[in-house]
Design brief:
Shape: rod-shaped
Number of helices: 4
Distance between the termini: 84 Å
Strand order of the largest sheet: 1-2-3-5-4
Helix content: 40-55%
Low-confidence stretches: none
Oligomer: single chain
Radius of gyration: 32 Å
Mean pLDDT: 85
């Protein structure tokens, strides 16, 4: 058994690291990538300096243990400042905004163009071209008032 550890050279560590990373590709989520990275680091360091097999095993254990907090830090979901809080509530994002009527409000209904979409609006009779403000939303229906 000791002969196997003595023969652990830098090439064996590099091969072991690549095998672990390849296994991660085949079975994702098992944390083998980080163990493979630890083995690669030990292999690269053993290329630079002549290190005994005992130190190589200790270095592998330290790098593998250090990979856990690194992985947790990188895997933690980061708050996305650019994410829209109204992603699934598109109409609520329109509250308080002003738009120009595309078609007049006659008998309580009309339309406004918002971006590339025409929205049905409800409100008091108002001629086309008038600026209106969205005061209430109910599903896909917008209630507007004069701006």
């Amino acid at each position: 058994m000791t002969d196997m550890f003595v023969s652990l050279g830098n090439w064996n560590w590099l091969i072991f690291g690549f095998i672990l990373m390849a296994l991660e590709v085949l079975a994702p989520g098992i944390f083998l990538f980080w163990l493979g990275l630890a083995a690669l680091l030990v292999g690269l360091i053993s290329f630079a300096a002549a290190i005994s097999w005992q130190i190589q095993l200790v270095m592998f254990a330290i790098f593998a243990a250090a990979a856990v907090p690194v992985w947790r830090h990188l895997a933690k979901p980061k708050p996305n400042a650019s994410a829209s809080p109204f992603l699934n509530k598109r109409t609520e994002a329109l509250l308080g905004r002003e738009f120009t009527l595309e078609k007049p409000i006659i008998d309580g209904t009309g339309t406004v163009r918002i971006g590339d979409t025409v929205w049905r609006v409800a409100g008091p009779d108002t001629p086309a071209g008038t600026r209106v403000k969205v005061v209430q939303v109910d599903g896909a229906n917008l209630t507007v008032a004069a701006a």
